[in-house]
Amino acid sequence: MDRQPHILVVDDEDLVAFALSLALQDEGFRVTVCHDGREALIAECEDRSDLLLTDLRMPGMGGLELIREVRQRRPHARIIVMSGYSEGYPPEEGGRLTVLRKPFPMHTLVTTVKGMLDG
């Protein structure tokens, strides 16, 4: 039996995190939800993800700092950044980091996740 890909969802908005988690679980992914960067780093150490899906602006440790920390540990980690703001995005790295601007349809998220994991 194939292993379920593990997605780490990091968003400080409970409803957003819940909706993302449900959509991804419905597609067969195993999902861990965290609400800030520090919590995500702990979760990542305990159960390494196949893909990090993170918001940028969160209290405490935000998405950019989280990405820097993850990149120090795993330079080739696959990351999707979600944000409703128009500035402050990290540079997209073909196949390793992409940006989804909120709001986005769930089918776009699922297609992006599958494409990154298959790449």
UniProtKB/TrEMBL annotation:
The keyword Phosphoprotein applies. Pfam families: Response_reg (PF00072). SMART domains: REC (SM00448). Keywords: Phosphoprotein. Residues 6-117 form the Response regulatory domain. InterPro entries: Bact_response_regulator, CheY-like_superfamily, Sig_transdc_resp-reg_receiver. The modification 4-aspartylphosphate is found at residue 55. The keyword Amino-acid biosynthesis does not apply. PROSITE patterns: RESPONSE_REGULATORY. SUPFAM superfamilies: CheY-like. PANTHER family: STRESS RESPONSE REGULATOR PROTEIN 1, TWO-COMPONENT RESPONSE REGULATOR. This is Response regulator. It comes from Azospirillum endophyticum.
